[in-house]
Design goal:
globular, two-stranded antiparallel sheet, alpha+beta, four-stranded mixed sheet
C-alpha cells in the first residue's frame, strides 16, 4: 500500500541529531506499550460490571453440572442487551491484548525492553495511579479538560455507564473528531510534528491527540533518513529481538490455528526490509482495528475494519471451543463475540454499546433491585441435589456472598476483593516483564490463564458488593525470607489452624506463582516443569525424585502438590484455593519439606521425601493439599488436626478454574 509520510519527516536530517532521534523513537515505543496496557484494566473493569451468570465448563468435565457462578461470559447466541454488550466489549478487550503484544514486539526490535509495571501507569505497589476520580489525562494522548465534549469525563474505572462509554469513545476516536473536539487555543499542545522540534531526553513526550497520531509519529520516526545516507531504522534495528506470540502461534491441541491470516503479529528479524514492513503493518492493524484508519491521513473515517485485519472465524472456532456443563462441545461463544464484532473498529463498537445502554443491567443495578443472594440464582435446572462430590451447596455459596456484603463487613470485603483483583492483574504484568525480558533461568509462558482468572475475580468483586474495585490501593510486597502458604490451614510454620493465604501472594495462574508453598488449584504440574494452567501436562524427570517405572515400563507422571509445591511456577494455579476446585484426573504427587538454607529461594530450600501421594479424579483440591500438609508435618514429627477447617467465605465465592 502507499503510505503517507508526514512532510516534517521527509527531509534528510543532520546525522548529529541521530542520538536524540534514537531516544525519541525508543520513548515512543514504550509509550505505545503504556497506552495499550492502560486500556486493559479500564475496559476489563466495565466489561465484568455487566450482570450475568455462567457455568463452569470444560471438555469432558461435568463436575459442576447445574451450578452457576456470578459473572457474565460471551454468548454464541446473544439475545439480551447484556449479552450483546458483553460480546462487544469483550471483543475490544481481546484486541487490546493483541495490540499490547504487537507494541511489545515492535519495541524489542528497536532495542527497547518493554516494561509492564512502568511508573507511567502504576506505583511500586502495583496500584494503578493512571485512574482516579480527579484524573483527566489519557496517558500520552490528551488531557480531557482540553476538550469540548469530554471535559467533565474522569479517567477512572467504574461500571459500564454513559460516562465510561464517553471515556472509551474519547480514547478510540479518530483524528478528525479529536481535532474538532479540542478547545480553541489548546490545539498546539497536541498532534505534534515528527521529529519533535523541542523535545529533550528525560522530558515527557508531547501528547499525541489520538492513538492513531501516536502511531503516525512512530512511523515518521521509523522512516527518518539522514544527509549521510543512513537511516534511523538502520541504527536501531535489533536482529536478536525477543518476539512473542499468543494469537498467531501454533500449539496442539490448545491453539491449532493462527487467528489472523492477513498480517503477522511477530516480526521476522532475519531480514531488515521485511521487518520494517511488518512493523508498519502492525501499526496499520492497530489503528484500523481501533479507529478505522491505517497509518496515513485520511479525509474521513472508514466504516469497517479491513478484512485482512480481522481474525479468521474458522481459526477462532478451532482455537476457542466452548463446552456445556456436561462437558459436551457446543458452538464457540468467543468466536461469535469476536467474528460478529471485529469488522467494526473499537470506536464504532463503543458507539453501539452506548445505544444499548438503556437496556443494560450492571451488577450495582442488579443487587439494588434483587436484594440478598439466594440458592435459586446459583443453580440451573439440571442441578443434582445429591451432590456426589460433596461440593459447597448453592445455599452455602449464597450465604457466603451475603456475608461478605454485610454492612459490618463491606469495608474489609471491598479492600480484600480489590486487592485480589490487583494481585491477579499484577500476576499478568509482572510475568509479562519476564516474557519479553527472559530471565537467566529461561523463557516464561504467556500468562493467558491469568487474564481469564483476573476476569473471574473482577466478576466476583462486582457481584458481592456492587462497588467498583479500587485498583489504586496496591499491595504490600511479599516479605523476604518468609515461607508463605497458599490457603487455609496449610501454614508450614503453624499447626493447621491458620487463616487464608496472605493477599500479597494471591494469584490466578501457576505462571504467576512466585515461590514454593504458594501453588494452588487443580492443574497440577510435573515436578520437572512444563505446561501451563489448563494445558496438557508433559512427562519430565526430576533430580532426586522417584519418577521411574519398572523394567520396560514407561515412567509414571509425578506432579507437584498444591501448597506443597517445590518452587515457583509449580503446584497448580489459583490462590486461595476455591472450595469447589476438584482434580480433573487421577495421579501421584511428590511431597516436599522446606528447610532454611541459602541454596533455595528466599532462604528456603525444597527437599523431596517419602513415597508419592495418590490423588483421585473429582477429589477436592484443598482436601489433597491438607493431606500433603499433614504428611509434611508428620515427617517433621508434629501433629495437626485430622480434618481441615470449614472453607471461609472468600474460598466459597471464588469459582473453580477449568
Amino acid at each position: 500500500m502507499t503510505r503517507t509520510l508526514s512532510a516534517s519527516a521527509q527531509a534528510p536530517r543532520d546525522p548529529a541529531l541521530k542520538t536524540i532521534d534514537k531516544m525519541a523513537l525508543r520513548a515512543i515505543a514504550q509509550a505505545a506499550v503504556d497506552v495499550e496496557l492502560f486500556t486493559i484494566p479500564l475496559y476489563m473493569t466495565s466489561l465484568y460490571s455487566i450482570q450475568g451468570m455462567h457455568a463452569i465448563t470444560g471438555q469432558g468435565n461435568d463436575f459442576y453440572q447445574g451450578r452457576l457462578w456470578p459473572g457474565a461470559k460471551t454468548s454464541a447466541n446473544p439475545i439480551t442487551a447484556n449479552e450483546h454488550a458483553f460480546n462487544l466489549v469483550f471483543s475490544v478487550f481481546i484486541q487490546e491484548m493483541l495490540h499490547l503484544q504487537m507494541a511489545a514486539n515492535m519495541a524489542t526490535v528497536l532495542g527497547v525492553s518493554p516494561r509492564f509495571t512502568d511508573t507511567a501507569l502504576q506505583d511500586d505497589r502495583h496500584g494503578w495511579t493512571c485512574y482516579g476520580p480527579t484524573n483527566s489525562v489519557i496517558p500520552n494522548i490528551i488531557d480531557l479538560k482540553d476538550t469540548i465534549h469530554h471535559e467533565d469525563v474522569p479517567v477512572n474505572v467504574g461500571p459500564l455507564s454513559d460516562v465510561l462509554l464517553r471515556l472509551f469513545i474519547a480514547i478510540e476516536q479518530p483524528e478528525i473528531d479529536a481535532r474538532a473536539n479540542i478547545k480553541p487555543g489548546k490545539e498546539k499542545a497536541y498532534f505534534p510534528k515528527a521529529p519533535f522540534a523541542d523535545w529533550k531526553p528525560g522530558q515527557p513526550l508531547p501528547r499525541f491527540g489520538t492513538i492513531g497520531w501516536m502511531y503516525q509519529c512512530y512511523y515518521d520516526y521509523l522512516s527518518l533518513a539522514y544527509s549521510d545516507g543512513s537511516t534511523l531504522w538502520d541504527a536501531l534495528f535489533t536482529p536478536t529481538a525477543v518476539q512473542n506470540d499468543l494469537f498467531n502461534s501454533f500449539s496442539s491441541p490448545g491453539h491449532p490455528m493462527r487467528e489472523f491470516m492477513g498480517f503477522e503479529t511477530t516480526i521476522a528479524t532475519t531480514d531488515k526490509a521485511i521487518a520494517f514492513e511488518q512493523m508498519v503493518s502492525m501499526m496499520d492493524a492497530i489503528t484500523d482495528q481501533g479507529e478505522g484508519s491505517e497509518i496515513q491521513r485520511r479525509p474521513q473515517l472508514l466504516q469497517a475494519v479491513k478484512p485482512k485485519y480481522q481474525p479468521s472465524d474458522t481459526a477462532l472456532r478451532a482455537d476457542y471451543p466452548s463446552y456445556d456443563d456436561t462437558g459436551r462441545q457446543i458452538p464457540s461463544a468467543d468466536a461469535v463475540a469476536r467474528s460478529d464484532n471485529d469488522p467494526m473498529d473499537h470506536y464504532e463498537r463503543f458507539k453501539k454499546v452506548l445505544d444499548l445502554l438503556p437496556q443494560i443491567v450492571t451488577w450495582p443495578m442488579w443487587l439494588k433491585a434483587n436484594g440478598p443472594w439466594t440458592a435459586k440464582e446459583l443453580q440451573g435446572p439440571d442441578y443434582d441435589p445429591s451432590n456426589p462430590l460433596k461440593l459447597p451447596t448453592p445455599d452455602e455459596l449464597a450465604a457466603a456472598l451475603n456475608a461478605l456484603n454485610e454492612p459490618t463487613a463491606q469495608a474489609n470485603s471491598h479492600t480484600l476483593l480489590s486487592q485480589a483483583v490487583i494481585g491477579a492483574i499484577a500476576g499478568v504484568t509482572t510475568v509479562l516483564n519476564d516474557y519479553w525480558n527472559p530471565p537467566a533461568t529461561g523463557p516464561v509462558l504467556f500468562p493467558f490463564p491469568s487474564m481469564a482468572g483476573s476476569g473471574d475475580r473482577m466478576s466476583i468483586a462486582w457481584a458481592v458488593l456492587g462497588l467498583t474495585p479500587d485498583l489504586s490501593i496496591g499491595l504490600d510486597p511479599a516479605t523476604p525470607g518468609k515461607l508463605y502458604h497458599s490457603c487455609q490451614a496449610l501454614d508450614l510454620d503453624g499447626t493447621g489452624d491458620n487463616g487464608c493465604a496472605a493477599v500479597e501472594i494471591f494469584h490466578t495462574c501457576r505462571g504467576s506463582n512466585n515461590c514454593h508453598a504458594q501453588g494452588g488449584c487443580g492443574f497440577v504440574q510435573p515436578v520437572g516443569g512444563g505446561g501451563n494452567c489448563g494445558s496438557a501436562v508433559v512427562v519430565r524427570g526430576g533430580a532426586g525424585v522417584g519418577v521411574g517405572g519398572g523394567c520396560g515400563l514407561p515412567p509414571q507422571k509425578l506432579y507437584s502438590a498444591p501448597s506443597d509445591n517445590k518452587c515457583g511456577g509449580f503446584g497448580g494455579c489459583a490462590v486461595p484455593i476455591s472450595a469447589s476446585q476438584v482434580f480433573p484426573a487421577t495421579g501421584q504427587m511428590q511431597l516436599y519439606d522446606f528447610v532454611e538454607g541459602s541454596e533455595g529461594k528466599d532462604g528456603w530450600q525444597s527437599v523431596p521425601f517419602g513415597d508419592p501421594m495418590l490423588y483421585q479424579r473429582g477429589e477436592k483440591v484443598h482436601d489433597v493439599a491438607y493431606r500433603a500438609y499433614q504428611a509434611v508435618m508428620t515427617h517433621r514429627g508434629k501433629t495437626v488436626p485430622a480434618d481441615p477447617p470449614a472453607a471461609d467465605n472468600l474460598r466459597l465465592v471464588f469459582p473453580p478454574s477449568t
